[in-house]
């Protein structure tokens, strides 16, 4: 089932998410719905706060990005469910990349992030993992991780860019946009 994506201005997007356990109700269905919602909106990642749930869960599929270009073996895409994720370490040369967000449609901006992360998480079966990611994989994970920490990519933009997008953000908050996917706006028009 395709879920509505919560738009900029929704309070849940600014909450620090809480951990969950294997007893979380209908978790498999939620994860399936998040994948379906993300793909329908042409995303590469989706966090639970973006569908209205302040829990530490996000999904990432960079395989679809990597399939579109020739890459080295080390830059292979990933498709994973991240539950109760904790970034343990960030490092490497910071790099800038233009990011966007399904909760903030039609707004993009250059965000500087560390090139490498070490992260610990549980998968959909609550098996614990720890891995190091680089490149676009690290970027997308950091973006989704920010969501479960209550941080939006627009908060990481340079001050001038933040000023330039204020009107667009207000239009999103008020629901004054038309999209190809379902959204839940903070203020009903």
In short, what is this structure?
With 189 residues, this protein is an alpha+beta fold. It contains five helices and nine strands; from the N terminus they run βαββαβββββαααβ.
Characterization of the model:
With 189 residues, this protein is an alpha+beta fold. It has a single domain (5-183), classed as Alpha-Beta Complex (Peptide Deformylase), CATH 3.90.45. It has 5 helices and 9 strands. It has helices at residues 27-40, 63-67, 135-148, 159-164, 166-174, and strands spanning 5-6, 45-47, 57-61, 79-91, 95-101, 104-113, 116-122, 128-134, 183-184. The strands form 3 sheets. Strands 2-3-4-7-8 form a 5-stranded antiparallel β-sheet, sandwiched between helices. A hairpin with a 5-residue loop joins strand 7 (116-122) and strand 8 (128-134). The longest helix has 14 residues, at 27-40. It is globular, with a radius of gyration of 16 Å.
* Cα shape: globular
- CATH top-level class: Alpha Beta
Secondary-structure element sequence? EHEEHEEEEEHHHE
Structural class: alpha+beta
Distance between the termini: 25 Å
| Largest sheet composition | 5 strands, antiparallel
Q: Per CATH, what is the topology?
A: Peptide Deformylase
Percent of sequence in beta strands: 25-35%
Give the beta-strand count: 9
- In percent, how helical is the residue content? 25-40%
What's the average pLDDT? 94
Number of discrete domains? 1
CATH homology group: Peptide deformylase
Strand order of the largest sheet: 2-3-4-7-8
* Annotated CATH architecture: Alpha-Beta Complex
Radius of gyration: 16 Å
pLDDT under 50 segments (min length 5)? none
Helix count? 5
């Amino acid at each position: 089932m395709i879920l509505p994506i919560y738009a900029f201005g929704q309070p849940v997007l600014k909450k620090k998410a809480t951990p969950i356990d294997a007893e979380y109700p209908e978790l498999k269905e939620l994860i399936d719905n998040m994948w379906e919602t993300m793909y329908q909106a042409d995303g590469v990642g989706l966090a639970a706060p973006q569908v209205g749930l302040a829990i530490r869960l996000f999904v990432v599929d960079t395989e679809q990005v990597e399939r579109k270009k020739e890459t080295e073996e080390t830059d292979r895409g990933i498709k994973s469910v991240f539950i109760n994720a904790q970034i343990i370490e960030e490092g490497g040369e910071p790099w800038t990349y233009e990011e966007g967000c399904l909760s903030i449609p039609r707004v993009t901006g250059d965000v500087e992030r560390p090139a490498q992360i070490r992260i610990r998480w549980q998968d959909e079966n609550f098996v614990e993992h720890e891995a190091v990611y680089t490149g676009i994989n690290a970027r997308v994970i950091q973006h989704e991780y920010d969501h479960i920490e209550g941080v939006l990519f627009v908060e990481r933009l340079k001050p001038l860019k933040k000023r330039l997008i204020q009107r667009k953000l207000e239009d999103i908050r008020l629901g004054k946009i038309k999209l190809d996917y379902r959204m839940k706006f903070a203020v009903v028009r």
